Amino acid sequence: MTTTAGGYTFDYDRRVEPGALPVTLTYRGNPAAGVFLMVFSVFWFAVVMLIASAIFAEPFPVNLLPLVFLIPAAGLFVVGLRSLLMRLAVTFEADRVRIDERSWFATTHHAMALADYPGVLRARVSYTRNKKSHVAWLAVLPHKERALRVVLAATRDETEGRRLVEDYARWLSVPALEESVDGFDARGHGELDTPLARRIAAGSATSGYRPGGPVPAQVRIEQGADSIVVSLLRGPMPLWLAALIAGIGAAVAFVFIGFGADPGAQILGGGVGLLVLGGILRLVLSGMRTTRQIVVTRDHVVLATLAKSSGQSKVDHTMDHDAIEAIRLARGPLGGTVLWFDTDAGSFQTGANMPRAALEYVRDLVAAALATAGEGS
Hints:
The chain is an alpha+beta fold. The chain contains seven helices and 19 strands. A five-stranded mixed beta sheet has the order 9-8-7-10-11, with helices on one face. Strands 12-13-14-15-16 form a five-stranded antiparallel beta sheet. Strands 3-4-5-6 form a four-stranded antiparallel beta sheet. α5 (239-258) runs antiparallel to α6.
């Protein structure tokens, strides 16, 4: 089934198979759903007109009231018609891509040279279907113009999405891309599956870390004989968000207390509201009293969370040095900038709510530590 989300049109069952060219992928809307929505909208329109026939005889502006109920019917009809007419054909040739898109009753034609695309991007998009949220991982040829974006394949599995991107990058001899705050983080098609430390040694990746330089105030560095512990001193939740959550919880509690004629119901509602408020505040305070840590040993990088109250660390992820292929700054799951560690087993993040400059320092420090670990320094 064709899905449109995040500016991309894709179908899990349609993908480009690396091999002989040319090849064409065709995406269509959902004709059955389109016809159903159009028929339902016509039925809705007829029912509203039948019920409201007497209201039309009333003076202005009362006679306009039925139009409010006709707007949703018109919207459903438009959505259904678009789903019925939608058609997208993407043709891959040896050196270019042709895109033919029918929107409503006209077809637009585009042609792009493959060399004009920066590489193959792994894109994560979210969408809702049957009242459930889903995530798709796409291998795409990105472009700032939505009409020129090309989806090569789609999958529900993050690991497969990374493998697909690397396979297409090798096939097309272009870089494999990941999103970053500066646009794209690129790995050359000749260095796929190459550890970050080796890429730094080869000069295709760099680290701006310089020993003895100033350390950001939000970062603490502890260096031992065989490890470096990087502590992120700012909590994962900003204070304004904590205040907002606490305020909403308090408002809910007061609403439960202030409304309702039955005193017993008021007491019960107030108690439930206060329990919810207490739980939210406890979670907020717990998050603010934890320290995220990045522990770099001679063989591994560990992402952990240290509870200040107990002094105990909880390990979130452990990665071998050779498994880490990139460290980048990009948008986090809840917004903001975070630090991502990319491996073939998945991408793992830390550093939410940290300043960008501090995350850049930590990225360069960890990259330099990976590059020099094999030297025993």
